[in-house]
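Good morning C.,

I know you're traveling, so I'll keep this short. The sequence:
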Amino acid sequence: MTKIYRPIKNIIENLENFALNINHEFKTSLSEIISTLQLAQITKDYDDGVNQAVQSSKRLNNILDSLGYLIHFNNSEYRREKIDIVKHLDEAIYDFQQMMNKKKIIICKNYEINKKIFKNIDKDALLLCFNNIFKNAIRYSHESGKIEIDIRQRYFRIKDF
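The tokens, ready to paste straight into the viewer:
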């Protein structure tokens, strides 16, 4: 009987951990939005408060997008299209520029390719991966740090310090 229930127990534990992680991410983003706006009310510095609240709202939106992506993961085959990987990587970098500027993080690009890299892939899934990588790289980088991006033929690396 243990052999039958063990996989079910593992699935339930994984779902519980997933729910706890999602809950934590939602609470963190909502707390950032609320505290930023409350501080803006006190200090009357609405520009900075609104900008930070918008960034936190975007993170929360990305979490919801990620959740939606997970739900529809099995049906992603029809969303594949031929896209330029480097172009979308650069767009993801641009999206996080404000966060990088705030921590004084620089991006060091080393693209040793002489043509565009096209792949037949789900663009939303790729952007989700890039966003997650950059969010974590920025979050765990030191002030005035750097993030290195190396792209070569059949080689791709993003490294934070």
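Safe travels,
E.
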